[in-house]
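Q: Please design a sequence for this.
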């Protein structure tokens, strides 16, 4: 099955040049974008690659940035995986029910612009808001294959460190639109819900933040905060080499939509990567 990705917070990818700076935290830094259970396979597989991601500077920013992306994914036939997109964890299935659990990382947010090699994201527009620390998160997930062309999925994002940053839930459907020996096109529709702590951390403005930043004080309540549509296209150049292209669109809603730090309610995202499968 194809997996939904958590795109609400637009975490940047890792680059080779920045890797030396984060070696002590590499196990967490590799886990920038968790997803549900790994696709079924016959044996162990290692996929390496790189490319570019384009996304807003933070969720709600009206400015985008391009970041270099590193792809690393090792999947074992027994269900264990370590991946730059899925985290470190285990996934398997019972009939049509897929399940997984992973350790991952939620990127931090800075109140200033960050370079393309930074694991965190941020913008000068947030001056005075202070930094939001990154946190280790647990990511349990469930998926059910209703038919060959429709999967429903549910995934939680539970902080292990920096627990005051809050919990998020992501629910969605994925559908393979077109499959051939060389091409695979998949559509994913995702909705995201956050606790009051999560919403206040990423979309709220406290009294002290208001005084320092100039944004109006704002209390963000729990609720659905974003809908996302994403289309992925994988083209196999050879049995081992592939080009992976993705285009997405995120619409903020609820209290996130009305937040004073949100400058753009809807945002496009995109990526282009080349991978090699061993």
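A: Design:
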């Amino acid at each position: 099955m194809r997996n939904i990705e958590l795109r609400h917070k637009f975490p940047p990818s890792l680059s080779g040049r920045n890797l030396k700076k984060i070696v002590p935290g590499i196990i967490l830094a590799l886990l920038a974008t968790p997803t549900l259970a790994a696709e079924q396979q016959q044996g162990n597989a290692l996929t390496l690659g790189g490319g570019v991601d384009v996304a807003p500077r933070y969720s709600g920013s009206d400015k985008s940035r391009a970041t270099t992306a590193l792809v690393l994914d090792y999947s074992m036939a027994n269900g264990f995986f370590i991946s730059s997109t899925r985290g470190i964890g285990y996934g398997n299935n019972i009939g049509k029910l897929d399940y997984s659990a992973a350790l991952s990382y939620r990127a931090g947010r800075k109140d200033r612009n960050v370079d393309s090699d930074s694991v965190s994201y941020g913008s000068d527009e947030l001056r005075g808001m202070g930094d939001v620390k990154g946190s280790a998160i647990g990511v349990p997930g469930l998926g059910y294959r209703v038919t060959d062309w429709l999967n429903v999925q549910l995934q939680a994002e539970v902080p292990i460190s920096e627990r005051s940053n809050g919990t998020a839930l992501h629910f969605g459907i994925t559908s393979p639109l077109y499959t051939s020996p060389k091409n695979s096109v998949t559509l994913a529709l995702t909705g995201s819900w956050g606790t009051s702590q999560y919403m206040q951390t990423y979309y709220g403005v406290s009294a002290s933040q208001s005084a320092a930043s100039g944004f109006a004080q704002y209390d963000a309540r729990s609720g659905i905060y974003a809908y996302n549509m994403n289309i992925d296209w994988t083209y196999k150049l050879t049995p081992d080499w592939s080009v992976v292209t993705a285009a997405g669109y995120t619409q903020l809603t609820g209290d996130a939509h009305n937040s004073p730090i949100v400058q753009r309610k809807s945002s496009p995202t995109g990526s282009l990567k080349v991978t090699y499968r061993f």
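Q: Thanks. Anything notable?
A: The longest strand covers residues 223-236. Helices lie at 26-29, 196-203, 207-213, 254-257.
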